Amino acid sequence: MRESTAGSPARPSQNSASVPQTRQADRGWHRPERPLLKRRSHPQEITAASYVSDLPEEEEERVEIVIRFGTVFRSMGVILLTAVVVATLLTWWTPNEFLPQKSADQLAIAHATQARQQLATHIPERTIGIVSGHRGIYPSTGQLDPGAVCPDGLTEQQINENVAIKVKSLLEREDYQVDLLDEFDERLRSYHALAVVSIHADSCDYINDLATGFKIAGFAYSTVPDADARLVACLTDRYAAATGLPLHPSITDDMTNYHNFQELAPDTPGVVIEIGFLHLDRILLTERADAVAYGIADGILCFLRNELPAGESTETLLETTATPVP
Ligand SMILES: [Zn+2]
Question: Ligand 1 centre from 164 Cα, in Å?
Answer without folding.
Answer: 13
